[in-house]
Design a protein that fits this description.
Radius of gyration: 21 Å
Strand content: 15-25%
Oligomer: single chain
Number of domains: 2
Strand order of the largest sheet: 6-7-8-9-10-11-12-13
Shape: globular
CATH class of the largest domain: Alpha Beta
CATH topology of the largest domain: TIM Barrel
Structural class: alpha/beta
Number of helices: 12
CATH superfamily of the largest domain: Metal-dependent hydrolases
Largest sheet: 8 strands, parallel
Number of strands: 17
Length: about 400
């Protein structure tokens, strides 16, 4: 029986030059000399780098201004001001609907080789579930092209915005996959109360947690310790992520090492976007301690952040640059954070370029995987479930997206 797709002469991350055989959306064989076997479609990689599909572990589809004419970034002195400014921008009368803007961002991510993503979506009293409903529609529209996991994100806090816990409960019942949180101490002013609500709701819906943590210094470190403690006490090991976690990169070395060990014991994942203006989590130290590190875009061209196109190789380059990751081994580890670690976080099952794994792949105009991270060059082809859905950065066979 012919394979659905046969990829010839690809350089995979372990350095081997191989052929890759795909059937029924899965990789069925990896090795030399598969060319003699019949296939419905053949892709000649020409020795270029073939990577596992890229995974964006932290995105905000509902906030993007993709597809709009350029909107100047509003000036705001603090977090509260930026939140208010973002609301004004997103509710402007001439603004395109959330579903259209989110779809434009998904199209950009797809063209750059993202095959799965986790989007935080605002759930708050001022807008109710409207943003969630829009992104749920985008998820349905893009099914088969990209896996979209949705986090119900309480942007205005859990305790300081009355009624938010009920909305989060509704959001999870409606189809959100993960429960979010935000700065239990610095934003909500009650670390234990915030975490109590989150873990109670997560347990009742049997979902994981992904908590935004911007708080810096010792407050941020204390919050991370409490998240780790709650994770163990509630039996949520391996089901909790903390996004940003700037504080780990600011603590004294001894304090940071102790905290990292607690995060490792609790199975807490750290998600970073390698921001240029804040301390970044020390990825090498986290890896060495056994903490899973994933990478995400965070805000992409919106009222919070004017940059980006949801290019995960570019983002992995930035994480590598901020983390002083120079060697091939280090660059490959960074790539793992944008592929294998993200797959683990999103629960995608067997992943990578091995038999039995999902045939989610991206062919890059590079000689090897480390070069793909360092140079983040053009994507030559993007493959989802064994089907070529983009060539040379242009979507093919993606009607309606």
């Amino acid at each position: 029986m012919a394979a659905d797709l046969l990829i010839l002469g690809a350089r995979i991350p372990d350095g081997r030059l191989v052929d890759v055989r795909v059937g029924a959306g899965r990789i069925t064989a990896v090795g030399p000399d598969l060319a003699a076997e019949p296939a419905t479609e053949v892709l000649d990689a020409g020795g270029k780098a073939l990577l596992p599909g890229l995974i964006d572990s932290h995105l905000h589809l509902d906030k993007t201004l993709m597809g709009e004419r350029w909107v100047p970034l509003p000036e705001a002195p603090d977090l509260a001001g930026r939140m208010a400014a973002s609301d004004r921008v997103l509710t402007a009368q001439d603004r395109r609907p959330t579903e259209e803007r989110a779809t434009a961002l998904v199209r950009s991510a797809l063209a750059f080789g993202t095959t799965a993503l986790r989007s935080h979506v605002d759930v708050k009293p001022s807008i109710g579930l409207s943003a969630l409903e829009a992104v749920l529609a985008v998820r349905e529209r893009c099914a088969g092209l990209v896996d979209i996991q949705i986090v119900a994100f309480p942007q205005d806090g859990v305790l300081r915005a009355p009624g938010t816990d009920e909305l989060l409960d509704e959001a999870l019942a409606l189809g959100a996959d993960v429960l979010g949180g935000i700065d239990p101490g610095g934003f909500d002013g009650d670390v234990e109360g915030h975490l109590r609500v989150l873990f109670r709701l997560a347990a009742s819906h049997d979902v994981g947690l992904d908590i935004h943590l911007h708080d810096i210094g010792h407050l941020g470190g204390f919050e991370l310790e409490r998240i780790a403690a709650w994770t163990v006490a509630e039996g949520f090991q391996g089901r909790v992520a903390v996004s940003h976690a700037f504080a780990i990169g600011e603590l004294p070395p001894t304090d940071a090492a102790r905290l990292i060990e607690r995060l490792a014991q609790a199975g807490v994942t750290i998600v970073t976007n390698g921001p240029g203006h804040r301390a970044t989590p020390p990825v090498t130290q986290l890896w060495e301690a056994g903490v899973r590190v994933a990478v995400g875009s965070d805000n992409v061209h919106d009222a919070w952040w004017p940059w980006g196109r949801a290019d995960m190789l570019e983002r992995t380059f930035l994480v590598s640059y901020r983390g002083a990751l120079r060697t091939d081994r280090e660059l490959l580890r960074a790539l793992d954070s944008a592929t294998l670690a993200g797959a683990g976080l999103l629960g995608l099952g067997p992943y990578g370029i091995v038999p039995g794994a999902r045939a989610d792949l991206v062919l890059v105009d590079a000689e090897c995987a480390p070069e793909a991270v360092a140079a983040h060059p053009p994507r030559l082809a993007m493959i989802k479930a064994g089907r070529i859905v983009a060539r040379e950065g242009v979507l093919v066979d993606a009607a309606g997206v």
